[in-house]
Write a structure and sequence with these properties.
The chain is of the alpha/beta class. The protein contains 10 helices and 7 strands. A 7-stranded parallel sheet has the order 3-2-1-4-5-6-7, sandwiched between helices.
Length: 305
């Protein structure tokens, strides 16, 4: 029996990247999947490729009515809802605190946090009646490690992790599990969009992101491989399945170790510099102490025991 046999899932941001690959994995494992996204041509093409087990609905997750319609579509089409994967995202730009654009901040929050809460709201109404369900939100290592991501995105992702914990405490008694996945650097079109590429072009060329990640991975990440969309899809498969029946309120970090600390290749030169410097300081201090002692002895001021 396949892992998700007879389960129904909704995946937002399902037209490309992590969402599209997760839809493929879920269908292969027996699930019926609703692909939700704004790009109708890409969504319908993917649903057609996946066959009768998939359905596309055009959805802007920043609009509450669209989120409700998305959940209603899943129930109307497939009869139930076992998993919601909040995966939709949008690019945002770096801005110094003194230069933040609050309208842009609101737009990022609308997709990365407000939409997550809206998804939980409508999914929970269905899942509570069933007495079972799994809600998965794709967060980021930027939600708990500062300095790598920009302010709007990082703040929204941090909030989504805590919202997940709060929701898990309430919804557990209804049989609903609520978890997050925090990817590290994954080769998707998101990085291309960040530097101004058109969405379709960026999504069609994840190799641009792979090259960029590969240029820094040895200094940032202890595992020396580049993360791919399948790494996150497999984590989502675990959290959607009964294999994770005792897991809730958890943030599953899938980042090659980037959030655990500095890889030894990056830390080694600084560690060596640190110890050379302290040894030099100790040696210099010892030399001064010895010289001072000899001077004292020579002047006869030291006394004797």
């Amino acid at each position: 029996m396949r892992t998700l046999e007879d389960k129904v899932a909704v995946i937002t941001g399902g037209t490309s990247g992590i969402g599209a690959r997760t839809a493929e994995v879920f269908v292969a494992e027996g699930a019926k999947v609703v692909i939700a996204g704004r790009r109708q041509d890409r969504g319908e093409k993917l649903a057609g490729k996946l066959g009768h087990a998939a359905s596309f609905i055009r959805t802007d997750v920043s609009i509450e009515a669209d989120v409700k319609a998305m959940i209603d579509h899943a129930v109307d089409r497939f009869g139930r809802l076992d998993c919601l994967m909040n995966n939709a995202g949008r690019s945002s730009q770096y801005a110094a605190i003194a230069d933040v654009d609050l309208a842009q901040f609101d737009a990022v929050i609308a997709v990365h946090l407000r939409a997550v809460l809206a998804g939980m709201k409508y999914a929970a109404q269905v899942m509570a009646v069933q007495g079972t369900g799994s809600i998965i939100t794709v967060s980021s290592v930027n939600g708990f490690r500062a300095g790598l991501g920009e302010h709007y995105y990082s703040a929204a992702k941090a909030a989504s992790i805590h919202l997940t914990r709060c929701a898990a405490m309430e919804l557990g008694e209804k049989g609903i599990r609520v978890n997050t996945i925090s990817p590290g650097m994954i080769a998707t079109g998101a990085f291309g969009k960040f530097v101004g590429m058109q969405s379709d072009e960026a999504d069609d060329h994840p190799e641009y992101a792979e090259a960029a990640i590969g240029s820094v991975v040895t200094r940032w990440q202890p595992l020396q491989c580049v993360g791919h969309v399948d790494d996150i899809a497999q984590a989502a498969l675990f959290l959607a399945s009964d294999a994770s029946r005792f897991v809730t309120g958890h943030n599953l970090v899938v980042d090659g170790g980037i959030s655990a600390g500095w890889p030894i290749a990056a830390a080694r030169p600084d560690r060596e510099l640190f110890f050379r410097t302290i040894q030099a300081s100790v040696s210099a201090h010892s030399a001064l102490s010895t010289a001072a002692y000899r001077e004292t002895k020579a002047s006869g001021e030291g006394g004797s025991c």
